[in-house]
Amino acid sequence: MPFPSVHRLPSAVAGTVALSLSLAACVAPPRQPDAATTPATTAAATAEAGARPARPASATAALPPMRVMPVEAEPVAPATQAALSYVPRGFGPIDAMLLYADKLRPLAASELAAELARLGDPGDSPTVQMQAALVLAQTRASADLARALALLQRVIASSATEALALQPLARTLAARYLDQRRIEDDRDRQVQQLRESQKRIEQLNERIEALRAIERSFSRPNSSHTLPSSGGNGNGGSNRPGPAP
Asked: Quick check: pTM over 0.85?
């Protein structure tokens, strides 16, 4: 006689075991990552992140702009500003000086005086010494030209690094100003000689006029030397005196 319950026993036991294992997996704590495999996993994640496409520009532009806080700069005295309004940044020393000289050419005498006052005392700065020399040379005054030459000589004799780049231009300007000074001295000498010649000519003209006046006085007739007319004394027209009584 068969026993059906005996044949169904293994299936019931297997189901019970599977249900127990499922419940054990639900209540078991999570497995901790292995320390040996953690760096490899991190490196793989980093490589995967680098392989991802970059974020589009629209997403970056959507970020709010950073807030910039203004910082108040310390004011600089006008005398310490080495002609900042004339010398642009990024130019070489020679180019900056040539541009500065070109800006000085159309300035009037009052504007040149104001620029010279703004530069102040050049001190030991070769750049300011050159700028002051350029301003003084534009005034067309002999005394200012001599001062400009003195400043250029200081730049030429300086051993500072800043002066080395300016010395070729300083020597060229010094030679030009020396020629200009000689020409102006010759002109002043000729003007003085012309004035002295004009003064001598005026003196000679005065002497000539005096001689002409003397000559005219000699050529005039003298009324005191004319003879009296005859027949005016009643003696028969004779000029001899009559007999004594």
From this structure: no
